[in-house]
C-alpha cells in the first residue's frame, strides 16, 4: 500500500493529475459556502433541524451546499438529468442525435454541447423551483419581500453555479484523474459524512436519559452493516462472467494468424453507479419542480410521495434503477456489433454458431447478469430506509446504501485508472501482486 502511494508520486504526469484534481475539489468545497444573494441564512437552521427527507437527500448530494443555500445549492443534478435526456433521445428518437452518436468523437462533442444547453435550461427551472419552494414553505422568510426579480437573480446565480460545476467536472475528466462528475458527487457525499456522524451522536448520546450501552450497541451494528455493504458492493462490482472465444487459424502468405483462445469479460454490474445517480436525479426532479406550487394539494402530494422513503416513490426508484442499468449496459455493450466483429475476425464461441446465434447468446447472458446487478443495486439503494426504520435514525441522516454505493463505485473506478497509469510505467499498483 505505502509502496503504491510512493510509486504514484514518482510518476510526474500522475502526480500532476492528482494534485490538479485535489485543487478542483478544494475550489468546489469553498464554493459550497458562498451564499446566494439576498438569502436569510438563519432560516436554514430550521431546515436542518426539521430534517425533511427530500431536502436531506438533496443536501447530501450537494455536499451541504443546499442547507447553506450557496451558489452550488442545486449541485450537479441538472447536468445529470440533461445527460439522461440526451442519451435517451440518441436512441433513434431524434434521428440527428442518433446520427451524431454514431459519428465517434466529433459526434460526442456535438451531443456534449447539447447537454450543456440542456443543463442551463434545467438549472434555471430548478433554481426557480428551489428558491420559490423554500421561500413558500418557510413563510417567505428565506428571501423577505421577494419578487420575480429576486427569484430570477437567485435562479441565475444557481444556474451559474451548476455551469461552473459542470466545467470543473470536465476539467477533472480531461486534466485530472477519474470521471469528473462522479468525483464531484463523491466529494459531496464524503463532505457530508462528518455531519451525519455528529447528528447520530447527538441523537444517541446527547440526551441525559439515553441508554449508553444501547447507543453503543446500535452504533456497532450500524458500523458492521456498513462494512457488509462495502464488502458486498466490491464483490459485485468486481464480479465478471468470462465467455470463452476461440479464433480460427488463418494463413496469410507465410505467416499464420489466429488459433488463439481468449474470453469476453462481462461485468455483473457493467453500468457501475450511473443507474443510481440517474434514478435519484429523475426521481427528485418532479418533487423539485412541484416546489413552484408548494401549498397546492397536488404539489404537496408529489413532494410527499415521490421520495424513495414512500411506497410509490420506492417502487418508481427500483424500476428506474433496473431500467437504467439495462439501458446503460446495452449502450456500452452491443451484442449484435460484438457478434459481427467476432465473425469478421474469425472468432466464435465454442458450441455457438457465428452470426445471429452468437448475438442471441450474448444478449441472453448479458440480460441475466445485468438483471442480477440491477436487483443488487436496487436492494443496496433502499437500505437507508431500512436503516432509518430499524435504527431510529433521524431523516436528515442520508448516508446509506445509495451514498455508499456511489462512494465505493467511484473509488474503485478511480483506483483502476491510477492502476492502469502505474502499470503502463512498470510500477505495481493497488491490485497487482
TrEMBL record:
Q: Which GO terms describe its biological process?
A: intracellular protein transmembrane transport; protein targeting; protein transport by the Sec complex
Per UniProt, what is the membrane topology? Multi-pass membrane protein
User: What is the official name of this protein in its record?
Assistant: Protein translocase subunit SecY
Q: Which UniProt keywords apply?
A: Cell membrane, Membrane, Protein transport, Translocation, Transmembrane, Transmembrane helix, Transport
- Show the Gene3D superfamilies listed in the entry: SecY subunit domain
Could you tell me what this protein does?
The central subunit of the protein translocation channel SecYEG. Consists of two halves formed by TMs 1-5 and 6-10. These two domains form a lateral gate at the front which open onto the bilayer between TMs 2 and 7, and are clamped together by SecE at the back. The channel is closed by both a pore ring composed of hydrophobic SecY resides and a short helix (helix 2A) on the extracellular side of the membrane which forms a plug. The plug probably moves laterally to allow the channel to open. The ring and the pore may move independently.
Q: Where in the cell is it found?
A: Cell membrane; Membrane
Q: Which residues form a coiled coil?
A: none
Does Transport appear among the keywords? yes
Q: Where are the transmembrane segments?
A: 18-36, 65-89, 117-136, 148-169, 176-193, 213-236, 273-294, 314-333, 369-391, 397-415
- A single GO cellular-component term on record: plasma membrane
Keyword Cell membrane in the entry? The reply is yes
> What quaternary arrangement does the UniProt entry report?
Component of the Sec protein translocase complex. Heterotrimer consisting of SecY, SecE and SecG subunits. The heterotrimers can form oligomers, although 1 heterotrimer is thought to be able to translocate proteins. Interacts with the ribosome. Interacts with SecDF, and other proteins may be involved. Interacts with SecA.
- Which family does the record assign? Belongs to the SecY/SEC61-alpha family.
Which InterPro entries does the record cross-reference, listed alphabetically?
A: SecY, SecY/SEC61-alpha, SecY_CS, SecY_dom_sf
Looking up Pfam families in the UniProt record yields: SecY (PF00344)
Amino acid at each position: 500500500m505505502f509502496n503504491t502511494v510512493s510509486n504514484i508520486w514518482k510518476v510526474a504526469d500522475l502526480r500532476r493529475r492528482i494534485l490538479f484534481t485535489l485543487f478542483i475539489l478544494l475550489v468546489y468545497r469553498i464554493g459550497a459556502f458562498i451564499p446566494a444573494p439576498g438569502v436569510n441564512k438563519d432560516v436554514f437552521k430550521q431546515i436542518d433541524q426539521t430534517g425533511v427527507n427530500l431536502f436531506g437527500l438533496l443536501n447530501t448530494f450537494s455536499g451541504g451546499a443546499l442547507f447553506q443555500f450557496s451558489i452550488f445549492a442545486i449541485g450537479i443534478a441538472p447536468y445529470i438529468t440533461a445527460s439522461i435526456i440526451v442519451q435517451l433521445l440518441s436512441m433513434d428518437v431524434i434521428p440527428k442525435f442518433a446520427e451524431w452518436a454514431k459519428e465517434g468523437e466529433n459526434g460526442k462533442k456535438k451531443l456534449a454541447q447539447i447537454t450543456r444547453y440542456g443543463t442551463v435550461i434545467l438549472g434555471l427551472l430548478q433554481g426557480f423551483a428551489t428558491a420559490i419552494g423554500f421561500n413558500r414553505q418557510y413563510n417567505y422568510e428565506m428571501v423577505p419581500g421577494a419578487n420575480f426579480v429576486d427569484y430570477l437573480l437567485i435562479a441565475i446565480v444557481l444556474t451559474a453555479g451548476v455551469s461552473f460545476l459542470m466545467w470543473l467536472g470536465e476539467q477533472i475528466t480531461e486534466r485530472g484523474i477519474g470521471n469528473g462528475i462522479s468525483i464531484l458527487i463523491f466529494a459531496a457525499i464524503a463532505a457530508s459524512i462528518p455531519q451525519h456522524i455528529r447528528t447520530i451522536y447527538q441523537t444517541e448520546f446527547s440526551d441525559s436519559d439515553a441508554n449508553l450501552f444501547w447507543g453503543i450497541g446500535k452504533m456497532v451494528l450500524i458500523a458492521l452493516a456498513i462494512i457488509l455493504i462495502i464488502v458486498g458492493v466490491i464483490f459485485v462490482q468486481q464480479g465478471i462472467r468470462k465467455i470463452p472465444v476461440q479464433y480460427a487459424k488463418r494463413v496469410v502468405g507465410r505467416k499464420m494468424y489466429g488459433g488463439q483462445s481468449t474470453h469476453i469479460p462481462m461485468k455483473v454490474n457493467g453500468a457501475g453507479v450511473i443507474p443510481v445517480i440517474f434514478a435519484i436525479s429523475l426521481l427528485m426532479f418532479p418533487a423539485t419542480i412541484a416546489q413552484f406550487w408548494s401549498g397546492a394539494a397536488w404539489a404537496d402530494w408529489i413532494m410527499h410521495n415521490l421520495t424513495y422513503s414512500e411506497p410509490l416513490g420506492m417502487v418508481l426508484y427500483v424500476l428506474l434503477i433496473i431500467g437504467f442499468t439495462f439501458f446503460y449496459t446495452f449502450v456500452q455493450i452491443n451484442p449484435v456489433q460484438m457478434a459481427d466483429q467476432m465473425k469478421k475476425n474469425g472468432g466464435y464461441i465454442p458450441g455457438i454458431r457465428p452470426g445471429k446465434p452468437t448475438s442471441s447468446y450474448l444478449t441472453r447472458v448479458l440480460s441475466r447478469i445485468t438483471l442480477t446487478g440491477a436487483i443488487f443495486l436496487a436492494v443496496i439503494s433502499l437500505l437507508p430506509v431500512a436503516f432509518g426504520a430499524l435504527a431510529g435514525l433521524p431523516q436528515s441522516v442520508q448516508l446509506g446504501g445509495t451514498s455508499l454505493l456511489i462512494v465505493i463505485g467511484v473509488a474503485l473506478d478511480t483506483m483502476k485508472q491510477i492502476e492502469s497509469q502505474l502499470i503502463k510505467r512498470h510500477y505495481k499498483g493497488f491490485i497487482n501482486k
